[in-house]
Amino acid sequence: MGRTMSFFVYFSGSCQRGEIDWQYKTTVQLNSHKACINQQSNWPRGKVLGGCSSINYMQYVRGDPHDYDSWQLSQWSFQEMLPYFKKLERADLNTIPKNDKFRNHDQTKGMMDVTMLEDTNQANRLFIEACQLNGFHETKDYNAEESLNGCVSMSQVSTKGGKRWSTASGYLLGAVKRDNFHLLIHAHTCRVVFDDQKQTIGR
Ligand SMILES: Cc1cc2nc3c(=O)[nH]c(=O)nc-3n(C[C@H](O)[C@H](O)[C@H](O)COP(=O)(O)OP(=O)(O)OC[C@H]3O[C@@H](n4cnc5c(N)ncnc54)[C@H](O)[C@@H]3O)c2cc1C
Cα(41) to centroid of ligand 1, in Å? Predict the structure, then answer.
């Protein structure tokens, strides 16, 4: 792994093809990628604590509830997923409207901080207004809608206090203080060994 943590906000592009990216490439494409060198595209993956959540675009979008339901898979309906969505998040009290059905605002629960992106650029507002003129409606919380059809909104992002909030921030920072938790960096796992009880054994 590369650097131990990444707090960069927005610079997702700059995190790619460097030491915190595995720097994968697609195979040579026969019928697409004509403008790319060797007809290959980059396939970034985070090589850092927090993995891709440390280099991604931080968009916090659960997706349209209807999509989950249309999969018709056991345990993957939106209603069955909702408790897990709520369990993992800490929605920002100042920017995301309270909604007990869909959101967790309890700051003592959840691991992943979610904030509504600040509306500082006038182009954002103009874009939303243009969408409204074309029949879309602005939602104050797209992660609390029964359907995303026709919605437009500013983004919700995985940040806290203006910094990236990766899974390393959410899960590792707390766990690393435990006596029975050992964190190895710059280490490449070659195999994971399980004992008869299906417990991993540390060798
Ligand atoms: C550029 C980019 C932008 C994205 N933007 C968004 C976005 O805006 N919103 C969104 O929701 N999702 C986004 N995603 C997707 C999202 O980040 C990933 O789906 C998610 O982080 C995957 O989590 P994971 O834990 O499954 O895997 P990963 O995050 O890939 O974690 C796997 C970890 O295991 C480590 N690892 C792998 N092999 C070994 C080994 N042999 N030994 C030791 N360590 C190893 C890796 O280095 C990594 O740290 C984006 C992804 C990328 C790459």
Answer: 17
**Site to substitute for ligand 1 among 1, 9, 48, 53, most atoms within 8 A of C-beta:** 53
CB 105 within 8 A of CB 93: yes
> Which residue's entry shows tokens 């909030």?
165
**Is there a contact between 62 and 77 (Cβ–Cβ < 8 Å)?**
no
How many residues belong to the chain? 203
How many domains would you assign to the chain? 1
β-sheet bridge partners, residue 157: 59, 115
116-147 per-position pLDDT tens digit: 998 888 999 999 999 999 999 999 999 999 99
Distance separating alpha carbons of residues 165 and 157, to the nearest angstrom: 9
Q: Please indicate, yes or no, if residue 95 is contained in any of the structural domains.
A: yes
At 185, the amino acid letter reads: I
Domain that includes residue 71, residue range = 65-157
Q: 48: which 2 tokens?
A: 């850092």
Task: Please report whether residue 186 resides in a domain.
Answer: no
